[in-house]
Amino acid sequence: MPSIQLINREQLEELIHMQETLNCKYGSTKWRDNFSFGQAKIAVIDEVGEFIREIESDWKWWKVNPNYHKQKALFELIDIVHFALMMALYHTDNSTLAMTSTDLTNDDFVFTPSDDKYDDFSLAISDLLQMSKPEGDFGRLNAKRDSLRVILDVINSGGALLGGLDSNAIYQSYIMKNHRNHTRVDEGVLVGRYDKNNERDLIYAPKVR
User: Fold this and answer.
1) What is the DSSP-derived secondary structure letter of residue 111?
2) Which of 40, 79, 82, 134 is least crowded, fewest Cβ atoms below 10 Å from its Cβ?
3) Model confidence over 94-106: pLDDT tens digits?
4) Using one digit for the tens of pLDDT, what is the confidence trace for 71-90?
């Protein structure tokens, strides 16, 4: 199957910085004091569940209904990325983690799907959950690069499931969801004043040159 690349080094570095800013918005610069890897794992599992429910008409081979809401599925994938970056940032600061991305090779950003794209995604999520242990790779200073590789695998394998994403889909969708999360805090989500039911669906529309 053809190789794909859904995010580049500069975009990954920006995502790391944006995630740290968002973390601080939700929990101040001391957000790590209230962080639990167990809670993060549950959050990832929940978001994975929402993602695969959005695309269930594709993986449920016993049903004949090939249509699903690709936009919603894309933003569920972005939610998984948010929590993955949180786990990667727990043991380090955003500048150091962003600098670590320079240790990645160009090949690290390229993903070649196997014949079973669902197995690819399942393995990437399994690696992510394994690394979310405090004693896992996210906790070893010499393994930050491997942590970022796992996040890239989650992004690319998840994107491969959706198929047909352009090279800016992940980056721009992350920015949109990150902005919405900032808005939620600004409008009172932390004190129960924000109603998500009033939100409009986010829509990523790639620019046509």
Assistant:
1) B
2) 134
3) 999 999 999 999 9
4) 999 999 999 999 999 999 98
With b meaning 16 or more CB within 10 Å and e meaning fewer, what string describes 3-32? Answer: ebbbbebebbbebbebbbebbebeeeeebe
Give me the residue label for tokens 């690696």.
Answer: 127
Q: Can you read off the two tokens belonging to residue 5?
A: 């690349």
Q: Give dist(CA 149, CA 34) in Å, integer.
A: 26
54 secondary structure, DSSP code: H
Q: Which amino acid is at 3?
A: S
Identify the bridge partners of residue 52 per DSSP, sorted by sequence position. Answer: none
User: What CA–CA distance (Å, rounded) separates 111 from 174?
Assistant: 19
Q: What is the end-to-end Cα distance of the chain in Å, rounded?
A: 27
Provide the CA 190 distance to its chain's centre, in angstroms.
22
Question: Is 37 in contact with 133 (CB distance < 8 Å)?
Answer: yes
